[in-house]
Amino acid sequence: MTDGIFVGGGGADYAEAQELLLKYANRHGLIAGATGTGKTVTVQIMAQAFSDAGVPVFVSDVKGDLSGLGAAGAETHKLHAPFMERAQRIGLDLTYSAAPVTFWDLWGIQGHPVRATVAEMGPLLLSRMLDLSEVQEGVLNIAFRIADEQGLPLLDLADLRSMLAWLGENRSEVSLQYGNISPASVGAIQRSILMLENEGAAGFFGEPALELRDLMRVDDTGRGAVNILASDKLMQAPRLYATFLFWLLSELFEELPEVGDPDKPKLVFFFDEAHLLFDGTPKALVDKVEQVARLIRSKGVGVYFITQHPADIPEDILGQLGNRIQHALRAFTARDKKNLKLAAETYRENPTFSIEEAIREVGVGEAVTSFLEKKGVPGVSQRTLIRPPASRIGPLTVAERGAIVASSDLGPKYDKPIDRESAHEILTKRAEQAAAAAAKAEAAEEEAEVQEREYRTARRYTGARVSRSTSRKSSSDEGFGEALTEALVKELKGTTGRRIVRGILGGLFKAK
Ligand SMILES: Nc1ncnc2c1ncn2[C@@H]1O[C@H](COP(=O)(O)OP(=O)(O)OP(=O)(O)O)[C@@H](O)[C@H]1O
Ligand SMILES: [Mg+2]
């Protein structure tokens, strides 16, 4: 087994091998640079090198060009000659080969569908996905809690909608235990779900849900699976993109055992267009992601963010990214220059060159690199000519991709949705009983009103003060209800909420 992955050649004549040590690959990383400077090819060569070293990887493929990992490069390719020349300069014996790719797609078109249940997503991430207010989030928490208590599986969005409808209809009973729930809040959540469905997310929620071990496969030649998530369409729904990737991280965190500092990672993630993960994400959620990123290291998971500028990543997270590949940054405006300077300052100095100048000057497919060394200390920065890829530059054809998806043994497991009995079906059945009960309750209420009228009339005749309150009415007052809900949100976020808001980002009652 090698102890590092070869990234390129550094030093004065690019002849010194630059390696990212597998031992420190779980200390996360950053790949940054202006558009067209070589970020995607860097991800491509790293993903394939991890795979060759037996480490499975997961990459989000924003432009479709990473699908080229699934085919070998070719001597007939127009870039063959420059690749050979580049390989020679850095002392690499370049041979072409394809990586063992698995294609995934939230919509199930360009790959196997990726699904999660509503319960697994959990109220916190779902609230973010639905862009809910704090009060609405409180109502969603109650919905989850009641579903849990009553054994109503929340699998797809139909389940969630039925659960909320039930909550709306049974406000008075629920209020006795949890505080009132305003119809306005329930309505707002229902509308947000509708919008999410319009974004095409309905198919994402349900079963069969993704099993993480299917991302962590190693083939019979010892190569790690290269999982490629089609993300072109996903980019148009940035909140879905962000919450989905956060969910994946949190699931890994929840499910994987503690391994300390392994010889090589169990899985490496590459998140492209990382700025979309953080744009507009509430501070509370960013804090949790920061926490998960820090803790997931000891589960052997490395996370690599890809973005144009390091400043796109929140500072607390940026500080955790030990392995760095900085492609060229432009410096046209005063602000560019300032940002470039800031980026350069985060690198360990090299007495032989100015890092700031190097970041401005490096050519396409060249970068300032710094990888963690002994004891996890950042290595001296190098100007590195990145190696050419062994797999194809540019996307697979639709036919090539289709052939890979069709021949994958994961197809039978995931390609067809399953709709088993869950909250929606159970509540629909119960609705009949509820309707009957409601009719009965209405009759009883009428009876009570008749009695009250008679009582008042009797009191008037005796001249006494009417003192019976109409508290039943005032308890459904909305302001009061929202205040109680808010109190409950606080309670749920405290100790009593642990059971529901599983772990750090977690969902609820996992599919066992
Ligand atoms: N390591 C490399 N070896 C050989 N050629 C490279 C390398 N890196 C980049 N190139 C060349 O540069 C082109 C652009 O690189 P790439 O697509 O990786 O840029 P990018 O930073 O991802 O751009 P964008 O921001 O537009 O996505 C590639 O198509 C390839 O021709
Ligand atoms: Mg790119």
From TrEMBL:
SUPFAM superfamilies recorded: P-loop containing nucleoside triphosphate hydrolases
Looking at the record, the residues that make up the Helicase HerA-like C-terminal domain are 17-508
Classification via Gene3D superfamilies = P-loop containing nucleotide triphosphate hydrolases (3.40.50.300)
Signal peptide coordinates: none
Q: What organism does this protein naturally occur in?
A: Donghicola mangrovi
* Positions of transmembrane segments: none
Q: Spell out the protein name for this chain.
A: DUF853 family protein
Q: Where is this region: Disordered?
A: 440-480
